[in-house]
């Protein structure tokens, strides 16, 4: 279980003035199942905020239709406050914090570049209530409390000639520690986000993007057992292009910060690594090339660290690294490896 991972989810099928959709709620429910799966996101259920949308078959009106953009922004504000309360007593927990945002419904591309999900009350000839996800992701990259932020948006990106409008939230959380932001979009600007015309073999109808996304999170692992952003992007692009007859180009891109590993599984092959530390340095860590902490301890411990690691580049040094601090980089490449810190030598 990942206690510092949170999520905000909403799928919108019903609209006042636009055509109703069939897939978004099914997509959001499928994403939530992945989130709580121990072999998926492993997010505690209590950390997931589901923003309810108008359902049923009765007509809905603009005044009562749910959700509104304000409701969705309040859901994000709620998880921000919950994590911030945890960080007051345990600041180091930010290193393990992550926020997932998943939204599905009708959409547009404000300013011809962004990505906004339309709320049920949206009227193309009047008021267009919407959540501009690109600017929300930018806000988290500048001022959010989370270490990693992953947004996935299954909506069209046709231009309704809206001006970009960011989230109505103040920049309250400012940190020198860079935030990693990943944004997954169902379509390029000017394209529709498609869904099948009918159900197949009784399987609930879902959008092509979310289906490919969840398949990629389960299957697109590298030799080290990692689902990386680049690997997920390639998987989603290929499947969506093929399944839509090349009418829809989806993407999953890292927008800022250190590279993100979306999910980790058991590596296909590992090698024994023994790290011997000398000196008096405290709070040392071993990090991989994605900056994830694999081990921590003090140099004065006589017992060496022993780990099973896949091939890759690794680093030993103080957790809060500063200029002049001693560090040691080492490579695992097809065999067991002994490392000495801080000498910087690797013994074969």
Please describe what this structure looks like.
This protein is an alpha/beta fold and 348 residues long. The protein folds into 2 domains: 5-264, Rossmann fold, CATH 3.40.50; 271-347, Immunoglobulin-like. The protein has helices at residues 24-36, 69-89, 133-143, 208-219, 229-243, and strands at 5-11, 48-50, 98-104, 107-108, 116-118, 130-132, 148-154, 180-185, 226-228, 251-256, 261-264, 271-277, 284-288, 293-297, 305-309, 312-318, 328-332, 337-341, 346-347. The strands form 5 sheets. It has a 6-stranded mixed β-sheet, with helices on both faces. Strands 15-12-18-19 form a 4-stranded mixed β-sheet, with no helix packed on it. The chain has a 4-stranded antiparallel β-sheet with strand order 14-13-16-17, with no helix packed on it. Helix 4 (208-219) packs across helix 5 (229-243). It is elongated and about 70 Å long.
Task: Present the secondary structure layout.
Elements: E1 5-11, H1 24-36, E2 48-50, H2 69-89, E3 98-104, E4 107-108, E5 116-118, E6 130-132, H3 133-143, E7 148-154, E8 180-185, H4 208-219, E9 226-228, H5 229-243, E10 251-256, E11 261-264, E12 271-277, E13 284-288, E14 293-297, E15 305-309, E16 312-318, E17 328-332, E18 337-341, E19 346-347
Parallel strand pairs: 1-2, 1-3, 3-7, 7-8, 12-18
Antiparallel strand pairs: 4-5, 5-6, 8-10, 9-11, 12-15, 13-14, 13-16, 16-17, 18-19
